[in-house]
Specification:
The complex is a heterotrimer of chains A (297), B (344) and C (416).
Chain A (H helix, E strand, L loop, with lengths): L2 H32 L6 H18 L4 H30 L6 H27 L4 E2 L7 E4 L2 E4 H23 L1 H11 L1 H6 L4 H23 L4 E2 L3 H16 L4 H21 L4 H15 L11
Antiparallel strand pairs in A: 1-4, 2-3
Helix pairs in contact in A: 1-5, 1-6, 1-8, 1-9, 1-10, 2-3, 2-4, 2-8, 2-9, 3-4, 3-8, 5-6, 6-8, 9-10, 10-11
Chain B lengths: L9 H21 L3 H24 L8 H19 L3 H23 L4 H21 L9 E2 L15 H24 L1 H11 L1 H6 L4 H27 L1 E2 L6 H14 L6 H16 L7 H15 L3 H11 L12 H5 L11
Antiparallel strand pairs in B: 1-2
Helix pairs in contact in B: 2-6, 2-9, 2-10, 2-11, 3-4, 3-5, 3-9, 4-9, 6-9, 7-9, 10-11, 10-13
Chain C lengths: L1 H22 L14 E9 L4 H19 L3 E3 L2 E11 L4 H14 L4 E3 L4 H11 L5 E4 L14 E3 L7 H11 L5 E7 L2 H16 L3 E8 L7 H10 L3 E3 L7 H12 L5 E4 L5 H7 L8 E5 L9 H14 L11 H13 L4 H11 L2 E4 L2 E8 L4 E9 L1 E7 L2 E8 L1 H12 L5
Parallel strand pairs in C: 1-3, 1-4, 4-5, 5-6, 7-8, 7-9, 9-10, 10-11
Antiparallel strand pairs in C: 2-3, 11-15, 12-13, 13-14, 15-16
The chains are: A mainly alpha (297), B mainly alpha (344), C alpha/beta (416).
């Protein structure tokens, strides 16, 4: 294997992984804050791609502006969904409601939401598969290592988002509240903070990240109604490898799965995905709770 | 929270069960249409799968991997029948034995992860099984196995009609119900319930959470595999695509819709609804998933305790509104009246 | 109260719009038939969530009423109008099985035609064969032409279009020696990749690698990297699905620096492919062309395209792919002069059939290589083109007879 190929494989891994990192950061924020295993997250990602298709391809807005708008719109959609569905589900719970019951009901509500969003998009946009013309068609070619500028931008965007989230989580009061809520919501309420809006914010932020992820990959891949269902399984896998509730774990997990897939497809062929699954199961049998997470109940 | 098993005296419950059995046993006599019989058969399979989900849920674990062992069972049965040439009457018990050993091994790893991690790892396992089945040439690859023989004749009973398959699955269902009922009412069932309510408290009482959960996982997975074995010999075709991750998600919809506190009737009601409602929605076929999604949300939001929970609470109507009980739209609109609801 | 209003509006609006839209398209009732005309129910299952299925559904909803209006079927002096019953098979085995159960047991159809996906078709066979329902279907799976089946016929050209295509490569690229196959990791992809390797080796090509990608892959960069490193002369895409995924493969290979020749047995759906990839990436692609896109299309093809654009607006080449089964069915019933599926199947199995469709001419063939000596598979005329400078150039047409000969010499045996 030449060094050029090795570098190319690492670059592919980075590009694969950054998409999952963007997806999973949102998923993780939602799980940590609101304790909802949101199966509709993939549909938010899909809607983000469709938003970019509308704003950038049809309405010819600026690419960066379309991206930000896609994120904001999806944040709004997320907030509405949370307030009209998940918050109501939550209100049904009492002190005696067990953890598993809460988890199951909100997950099932998200499955209902998923069906509605999925089929709604299909009816609205039709079955025709769409694409977004890439705004950066240039190729970067250094010593036989080739990557399109668009992919570099996706990787950079993932890094920027990671840094921004780090800043939000660890350098601001809001971040402190968000982190506190994931440990003990009651204590936060007792401290006189209205957790209700914080949770809405959590869900909206997570959805906005999914929308952003869908938007930024739209020029790389195709825009289809079922793109969300395809991506959610691997996203959940990344979440699990890194450890639920661990910010660094998510990034590590994304990179690890990217690497495993990139090298797997090169050397193992079709069974690469199976190999990744087995790898994850092996990791979890030694470290329940993921690489950097805690074994939580 | 009042244990729901005590809502009627035992003899009334027995009478209800006998009537139900007679009704379901007599059903195909009045139904000419083979298609409806097919739906009933699939509803029975769904009920078994839903019950296996409920069993794990009774220990506080949410498994999205029922589809995985459903597939494992179907594949074991199919490859035994095709390669060793043995009939359903042997493959069925063999499937149960092999899959219970497999479930024990897999469960030993999985059960160590609780909460959300368990949900995801079982879902991933379901996907992994599908991919593995597609990759292994011996199992027919993505094309699957076709031409699986029907169960051989038992004396005068030939398995060539929907009717015979319906009675076969009804008997399997009955056996599963009896076995589950025995488990739930034994000390094992009580230990499960204790773990579900409070894992830590149960631990202090000397209940080994890990081994009880592993037991539940093994039994639930084996049941799903048994349903898979029937599926293989009924469909006579097994393909990996039939067991995608979404199947596992549908399975728990059965349990949630019917009512999580009703371990047998809940999945049965949910499964019947989820089988027949989409059929009648075919008139507006493009909207079927939307209507199903809205129905699901409505049940979760307004009929807590599922459909059965709502009915039971409504008939009881002694004014007490416990946490899992009915929350009609009206009481929801009068927000704030139900005490004990946490704001956040 | 605010929240209450919000959710109630949400639910009400979703339900409201569902029913509104469901009811709004004028329910297309079949034209009231004259007293002596009978109705023949014919079934079909299609995936309603992708354009493959939806465009085929639209095509059937167009050609069947037109066929009825033009006089319908005449069998033993009795006139029949065809009534198509189309259900969603979700492109899965379970969905297909449920839909076929319903067609056979509830609607009592005797014929099922124009199915698309291998998984729903194969799952349905366990119902249709014992019930003696005749099936004329698409789908690439070789299980369709299994000798055990008696009432099932494959009308898609998946299994027979590689052999005629490859000699063409030889003339177009005389210096090419090596080849890599990129196909989906499913039954279709696996079967076609091995067929492909067999034919390519027989013609003197060296197959360097068979690369398989998971069915729903979007990111083809890892595969393109691997293929570019192997530096094949020819890149082949057996079993590729016509839509954007095909385009993403061209794009990834182009970005990885692959510059060799490309060949595909299936025509890409150009609007979808070009939505995701620049036309440069398709340079030098040799593929089968939709028979409406050649310089002198047949009258049937021209008429079909005209009717489609008049009815639906935007033209879809995908809609052509799966409808030959309908024309085969109509011809078969009239040739056998019976609407009894057993009689028609027996007639076809023994005598074969030739028919014309907008997709060109086609005929049933035997498959001795699958130990099936009844007429069960299809050879059809194929139009070829090469993609140059942003557009397809027509290369030529191979007749159904020549396709048959090419297959016979590649796979052996007597096919007729």
């Amino acid at each position: 294997m030449t060094p050029g190929l090795l570098a190319q494989l690492f670059l592919n891994a980075l590009s694969l992984g950054s998409v999952y990192v963007l997806m999973v950061l949102g998923l993780d924020i939602i799980i940590r804050g609101t304790k909802i295993l949101n199966f509709a997250h993939g549909q938010f990602y899909m809607l983000g791609a469709y938003m970019l298709f509308l704003l950038f391809q049809i309405m010819h807005l600026d690419f960066a502006l379309s991206l930000v708008l896609a994120g904001l719109i999806l944040g709004l959609v997320g907030a509405i969904c949370y307030m009209s569905i998940f918050h109501v589900v939550r209100q049904r719970f009492t002190v005696t409601t067990t953890f598993s019951y809460r988890l199951l009901l909100s997950a099932m509500a998200s499955v209902g939401l998923m069906m509605i969003l999925q089929q709604g998009t299909l009816l609205l946009f039709g079955t025709e598969e769409r694409g977004v013309k890439t705004p950066f068609p240039q190729m970067i070619d250094i010593l036989d290592v080739r990557i399109s500028l668009m992919r570099v931008i996706v990787i950079l965007a993932a890094i920027v988002i990671c840094l921004l989230l780090y800043f939000l989580m660890y350098k601001t009061t809001l971040g402190k509240i968000l982190r506190a809520i994931s440990y003990d919501p009651e204590a936060v309420t007792l401290a006189g903070i209205n957790t209700r809006w914080i949770l809405v914010f959590c869900f909206a932020l997570g959805s906005a990240l999914a929308g952003f992820a869908g938007g930024i990959i739209a020029p790389l891949f195709s825009v289809t109604p079922d793109m969300g269902t395809d991506v959610i399984f691997l996203s959940l896998l990344v979440l699990l490898v890194g450890g639920i509730g661990s910010y660094k774990g998510t990034i590590l997990g994304g990179l690890l799965v990217g690497l495993a897939l990139s090298f797997g497809f090169q050397f193992l062929g079709g069974i690469a995905e199976l190999f990744v699954f087995l790898l994850v199961i092996a990791i979890l049998s030694f470290r329940p709770g993921g690489l950097l997470g805690e074994a939580a109940d | 929270m009042k244990p729901p098993t005590s809502w009627k005296p035992i003899h009334k419950k027995l009478a209800a069960a006998v009537i139900l059995i007679i009704v379901f046993a007599a059903l195909p006599i009045f139904i000419e249409n083979d298609y409806i019989k097919h739906l009933l058969i699939m509803a029975c399979v769904g009920t078994i799968l839903g019950m296996s989900f409920s069993m794990l849920f009774s220990t506080g674990l949410i498994s999205l991997g029922a589809g995985a062992f459903y597939a494992v069972g179907a594949y074991i049965s199919a490859s035994l029948a095709m390669n060793a040439g043995i009939s359903f009457w042997l493959t069925f018990p063999l499937t149960i034995i092999i899959s219970s050993i497999l479930a024990l091994g897999v469960g030993a790893i999985f059960v160590r992860n609780g909460g959300i991690a368990f949900v995801i790892i079982t879902l991933l396992f379901a996907s992994a099984v599908v991919i593995a089945a597609g990759q292994i040439e011996f199992l027919g690859g993505w094309g699957g196995i076709i031409g699986i023989p029907r169960p051989t004749a038992l004396g005068p009973i030939q398995f060539d009609s929907k009717m015979s398959y319906y009675y076969l699955i009804l008997i399997i269902l009955l056996l599963v119900v009896l076995a589950y009922y025995a488990l739930y009412t034994s000390h094992i069932g009580r230990a499960w319930k204790a773990i579900k309510l409070s894992p830590n408290l149960a631990g202090t009482l000397g209940i080994n959470q890990y081994s009880y959960r592993l037991l539940a996982f093994t039994i639930a997975s084996t049941t799903a595999a048994a349903a898979g074995s029937f599926y293989a010999h009924y469909f006579q075709t097994v393909t990996p695509g039939a067991f995608s991750g979404w199947l596992s998600i549908y399975i728990q919809l059965y349990a949630v819709l019917g009512g999580l506190e009703f371990y047998v009737m809940g999945p049965a009601v949910g499964s019947l609804l989820m089988t027949f409602i989409p059929e009648y929605l075919r008139i507006i076929k493009e909207f079927e998933p939307i209507v199903t999604g809205v129905l699901l949300l409505v049940v979760i939001l307004f009929f807590q305790g599922g459909i059965l929970g709502t009915i039971v609470n409504a008939t009881k109507s002694n004014g007490k509104n416990n946490g899992q009980g009915i929350h009609s739209i009206r009481s929801w609109l009068k927000k704030g009246k139900n005490t004990g609801v946490r704001e956040s | 109260m605010k929240r209450a209003a919000l959710i109630l509006t949400l639910v009400a609006s979703i339900l409201g719009t569902s029913f509104l839209v469901a009811c709004s398209p004028a329910a297309t009732t079949p034209p009231t038939a004259a007293a002596e005309v009978k109705t023949l129910n014919v079934g079909c299952t299609l995936p309603f969530d992708n354009s493959l299925g939806m465009d085929t559904k639209k095509a059937l909803e167009m050609i069947v009423p037109a066929f009825n209006a033009a006089g319908g079927l005449t069998v033993q002096g009795q006139k029949y109008n065809i009534n198509m019953i189309i259900y969603d098979d979700k492109y899965t085995a379970d969905g297909g099985r449920a839909a076929v159960e319903r067609l056979v047991n509830e609607d009592k159809v005797k014929f099922i035609i124009c199915q698309v996906g291998s998984a729903p078709i194969v799952a349905g066979l366990a119902v249709t064969e014992p019930a003696k329902v005749m099936v004329l279907c698409g789908g690439a799976s070789s299980k369709i032409i299994d000798p055990a089946n008696k009432y099932t016929f494959g009308t898609a050209t998946w299994r027979t279009n590689l052999a005629p295509l490859f000699p063409l490569l030889k003339t177009a690229f005389p210096n090419a020696k090596t080849m890599v196959n990129l196909s989906p990791d499913d039954e279709t992809g696996k079967a076609l990749a091995s067929d492909n390797a067999k034919i390519a080796t027989a013609l003197g090509f060296t197959v360097l690698d068979n690369v398989f990608y998971p069915r729903d892959t979007q990111d083809f960069a890892p595969f393109a990297t691997k293929i570019a490193a192997e530096k094949p002369d020819i890149m082949d895409f057996p079993g590729a699905v016509a839509g954007t995924q095909f385009g993403l493969q061209f794009k990834a290979l182009y970005e990885a620096g692959f510059t060799g020749a490309q060949v595909s047995p299936m025509p890409p759906s150009m609007t979808e492919v070009l939505a995701v990839t620049p036309p440069e990436s398709m340079e030098g692609l040799i593929s089968i062309l939709p028979s409406t896109e050649i310089p002198q299309p047949t009258a049937l093809a021209t008429q079909y395209k005209q009717d489609w654009t008049a009815k639906y607006g935007q033209w879809s080449t995908v809609s052509l792919t799966w409808i030959p089964a309908f024309y085969a069915f109509v011809n078969a019933v009239q040739k056998a002069d019976s609407v009894d599926p057993e009689v028609v199947s027996a007639y076809l199995s023994a005598n074969g059939l030739s028919w014309q469709s907008p997709n060109g001419s086609a005929m049933l063939v035997k498959r001795p290589d699958f130990k099936n000596d009844r007429f069960c598979d299809t050879c059809a005329s194929l139009d070829f083109g090469i993609f140059k400078k942003g557009a397809y150039q027509y290369l030529g047409t191979i007749s159904a007879d020549d396709a048959l000969k090419a297959n016979q010499s590649a796979f052996g045996g007597v096919w007729q």
